Amino acid sequence: MTAREAYIVLNQIGQIGPVRVRALCEALGSPEAVLGASAAELSRVRGIGEKVAESIVSQRSGLSAGREEQAAAKLGARLVTPVDAEYPKPLRNIYDPPLCLYVRGTLEGRDEQALAVVGTRRASHYGLAQTERLSYLAAKAGFTIVSGLARGIDTRAHRAALKAEGRTIAVLGGSMDKLYPPENRELADEICASGALVSEFPLGREPDRTTFPYRNRVVSGLSKGVLVVEADLKSGAMNTAAQALEQGRSVLAVPGRVDLDGARGPHRLIQQGARLVQDLSDILKEFEFLFPPDEQARVVQAQDARRRLTLAPAEAAVVRALWREPELDFDVVIRRANLTPARLMTVAMQLEMKHIIRRLPGRRLALMEEIRQWELPEDES
Questions:
Q1: What's the chain look like in SS3?
Q2: Which terminus of the chain has a smaller tally of CB atoms within 10 A, N or C?
Q3: 303, 321, 346: which is the final residue of a domain?
């Protein structure tokens, strides 16, 4: 048995993880030696004990690296272990690097310049819009966007990176054959074409409340920093931020409305010293070792080549009225844009046909989320 095969088998054994396996390898010499040791030899290693040793011995005989690789291959995945050159360098330096990664898609050297974007599954319109805007700009600037494929903020971050024609990596909270949430299966396929799906869980492992916090260290570990958009104080996103700090990564946060639960997490992080992020320049400043001042100016200038909205004066007035609000009542837009009700009806229909605004129930209007990636029309009045 090779070291690579041993890591694949050890990853399938319950009750042990990266920290215990490291202790066993240090005591016995190699991962192969761990699988060949007796229960008595295993039990003498600090932190193992008789019960865990007996569990290792009883499980290992029924496990096969070859079978696991064949099953993964049927899913279009391959297995990557710490002895493989493809194993991500950033993960090698964390306290508890995964013993084995199941990978669909590609892992590239440029993925070392990665930014994790995380947040709540129950995101507000504002949170989703900021996630899309910042993830899009960061991907355009050359960051690989890392997230967890969950509903809400994660999904929007992945989609924004794809829209920017950038790279994105999804770290799963369960095994590769138990994709969650199921409605993101098509998105997962798109990610594989422009990045990778990654899981450390053996095939067959259902996602649960223990697997998601465990995978968060991989999300942060793959990244230079973690950007939290919306999150409750006790949430997976805040757990990821805590993991990032322990790993020596940067933590950044987007401020929100003080009356939203999702703003509590980011605001707490900002109070504790996380970088407040309003636009791309704030992200670039956090990573000056990657983007020196001259390079920051070049990247921001390049992003300034964003499409400019070409609008009639009345259309521009409506867009400006909606620019800083998630949505507005029809009558409020009338006052802010200084239009008559009949004129606003006509202008709103024109903007809707241009896919710039959308109508909401209750006579409310909102900008399409991607419009904030464009330049705000100047007030020519």
A1: CCHHHHHHHHHHCCCCCHHHHHHHHHHHCCHHHHHHCCHHHHHCCCCCHHHHHHHHHHHHCCCCHHHHHHHHHHCCCEEECCCCCCCCHHHHCCCCCCCCEEEEECCCHHHHCEEEEECCCCCCHHHHHHHHHHHHHHHHHCCEEEECCCCCHHHHHHHHHHHCCCCEEEECCCCCCCCCCHHHHHHHHHHHHCEEEEECCCCCCCCCCCHHHHHHHHHHHCCCEEEECCCCCCCHHHHHHHHHHHCCCEEEECCCCCCCHHHHHHHHHHHCCCEECCCHHHHHHHCCCCCCHHHHHHHHHHHCCCCECCCCHHHHHHHHHHCCCCCEEHHHHHHHHCCCHHHHHHHHHHHHHCCCEEEECCCEEEECHHHHHCECCCCCC
A2: C
A3: 303
